[in-house]
Amino acid sequence: MSDPMAEIRASFFIECEELLESLQDGLQLMDDGDTDPETINIVFRAVHSIKGGAGAFGLDDLVRFAHRFETAMDEVRAGRFHPDGEAIRLFFACADILGDLVRAARDDEQVDDAVTGPVLEKLDKLVGLEEEEEEVLDFTPATLSLDFGDGGGLPDLPDLPDLSALPAADPSEDTLPSLELPADMPAPVAEAAMESTAKGFTVHFKPENALYASGNEPLYLFRALRDLGDISVTCHCGDLPDLDQLDPDTGHLSWNLTVHTEEAEQAVREVFEFVDGLCVLEIKPLTGGGAMVAPAPAPALVVEQAVEIAAPEAAPLAAPQKPQVSTEAAPAPTPKPAPVAKLPVGSDDDTIDAAPKDEKTAPSVPAKATGTPTQPRATVRVDLERIDRLVNLVGELVINQAMLSQSVTEAGLPPNSPVSTGLEEFLQLTRDIQESVMMIRAQPIKSLFQRMGRIVRESSASVGKEVRLYTDGENTEVDKTVIERLADPLTHMIRNAVDHGLESTEKRLESGKSREGHVTLTAQHRSGRIVIEVSDDGAGINRERVKQKAIEKELIPADAQLSDSDIDNLLFLPGFSTAAEISNLSGRGVGMDVVKSSIQALGGRISITSHEGKGTTFSISLPLTLAVLDGMVVRVADETLVVPLNAILETLTLTDDDLKALGPETHVVQIRGGFVPLLDLGAELGYRKPQDSYVGGIVLLIGQEDGNRAALAVDAIEDQRQVVIKGLEGSYGRVPGIAAATILGDGQIALILDPTDLVGQASGRTRVRQPQQALVG
Amino acid sequence: MTDTEKQTDSTSIELLSFRVGGQDYSVDIMSVREIRGSAKATSLPHAPFFVKGVINLRGTVLPIIDLAARLGLQTGEDTERNVIIVVDLGERTAGLMVDAVSDILAIPSEEMQPPPDLAADEARTFVSALTIVDGRMIRILDLEAVMPPQGEEVA
Questions:
Q1: Interface contact B45-A741, CB threshold 8 A
Q2: Which of A575, A589, A578 is nearest to A542 (CA)?
Q3: Global confidence as pTM
Q4: Which of residues 103-142 of B touch A (CB under 8 A)?
Q5: Which residues of A touch B149 (CB under 8 A)?
Q6: What is the CATH number of the domain that holds B56?
């Protein structure tokens, strides 16, 4: 595949993600009881566009599945099927599988038919539709793909005439009654729908200005129509005003066409598919051969009115039948279909079957004229790398600016001098730029929440609970990397909530709760951080059992006195799992401790609140971005270091009373009844030998994820500020005890400490529970 | 010195030669990104003895290798006159601290010799080839070997 094609393909998959998102949104709305036709349309269009794009790239699996899904959605849209909760759950499952298929296609993987099969079967059963493999075939030729001849639905081709003759299977019939036609119309229409195979149609076609404005040309439509069979065209120019009143930008012409064709009405309608909603279109079956060609002015008027009323509705209704390349999903290849379309034209009357005839009409219609107006969201896709470079440069600007300020101050210029004021403004601007650049990296957390919707559906199904997920604040913007790295921990937490948090349906009913369990996922900004909460309305943490379990597993001594929140926090201990038996959802040995450490790796904190009988809430607090960090700037052994603020519990000055010796070289700090090992930061990093005495020294009390604490001795605390994080791994490699680096105002690099790692290194040599580490120089 | 532009034929290699620990070394000029004055490096804990630390190179963190120490040569006192040669090696960038940059040389590739097998000097493993220019022996540095090991923890 050539490069441009790969690019188009890539952009198709990006669009697929967007479409899948709106699909999920739409389904969610439907699930919430929204019956707005527009909602259903959104869902339908999303599936349809994916199908169309997939067709263009010859992604047969995807097309096949999307097609069946689309057919089902079409039933819903046409009002023939009213989905209940069960059906919507199935639609959700379909959407999930569709997402899987899209991703599989993108990564060139295969999805097992065993996954799609049962769902499809249910789908067909649900809407009571027979499999319509033929329509799938419509696609294949249109796709420019080369596998027209193989597998697929070719053997089904002969069925096509049957299909069009079968009123029940022909959706076009249904579109017609929903047009508010004059009373005398339906009969001939319905009749003709059945007889249409042998005859032809008269088409009244009156373009609106929008049709021309969007680059369509009636001539092409007529040519496409001609490919269906003999046509005769009559142009009406009666509406033309006098020359002095003529607005050259307005179209005044309308046409009556008669097509003699074997095709179903659908085929004719498809010709006009791309101008749907941009014209007044009336297609009537020819009842008595070509006799009706000349339109009597009066009836024509009636028809026109009727159609005009019905037009907005008709537009989306006709859409499902477009089996062609969806140009909206794959914009770039649109110039290409034209030459390809000629292929079937050349072989018009020979052995090529009906199906190719259908599709060739579409590519000849100019591409962008998809009738449905999509509200353009002005967005630009930018490579993440470029943004990162920008973030880096802005960070550099900030540093530079700080250096400049410093030298201005050193130069002894008065604070109100023009240079100082200018610099002040510069400072303001720099901050604004920095903030804006950071915002570019931010994304709404919605995509993550939608994934969680799926987790809830799947996990609730596998444990046989009825669970509904509520989300709030899904437009909260978070750094992209945070979103990506949050997926795993959040998945685990959601599964936990469904599996452990919520009671079984019977128990819920017993305790007077609703049958359906509720899991709520919220996100919000709170004082410069983002707070994500996962809560359930289950039974709450059974603290007695948690404690029992912890004692059993020897995580705590049997006589430990623990407060409620202490017990709750036991859940985060490695190797802790309360589920009595291992379900296939959670309890795979990956516990909340992993969740906690991955949250902490993101610079976040996690906490639990639980109320007996009312439910449990896990609350995650995260920095808005990974590019900056709140840190405390400290000095030790003439080196400047930054300690992440979220690791510091408190700072204190050591007195003789606090400090207890333990062994020859080890000290512990007594803090409010507890003992905490003392680590000399300078010695731990190998900058200096351990000091003789730490009395009067400053220590930072570090809290670790496992609840252990440590006191880090430093020489001085210099500042507390936001620093821009610069990775060390890329340029040098991992340094034990060091998380990253940053650049301070004076242009010097300062290292950012990884307190957990540092303490871990120290406790590797000793045991934290019996602190007697030998401080090594 | 640095802006010399020499006409070379296709078979010759351009080298940047420099002095370190009293010896002449050189690197392929294509791997040199820039040459800059020395700056105070922030030392890295648990780093190998030859890693002086990291400096800020316009926003990126640049590890500095004290080449004399790396090659096992006599390390002179750190002076302001030390020069840092910033080299690119694939994905990695590092600064080599040297005494002084001397010249840019165009050496025909056939004049390059492999280092003799006799020497068991530590410095030898860092030399990929030798050549003679104006009677001076120029060692061509194997940048790959000079770089601190990456991937595993350098403790």
A1: no
A2: A578
A3: 0.49
A4: none
A5: 733
A6: 2.40.50.180
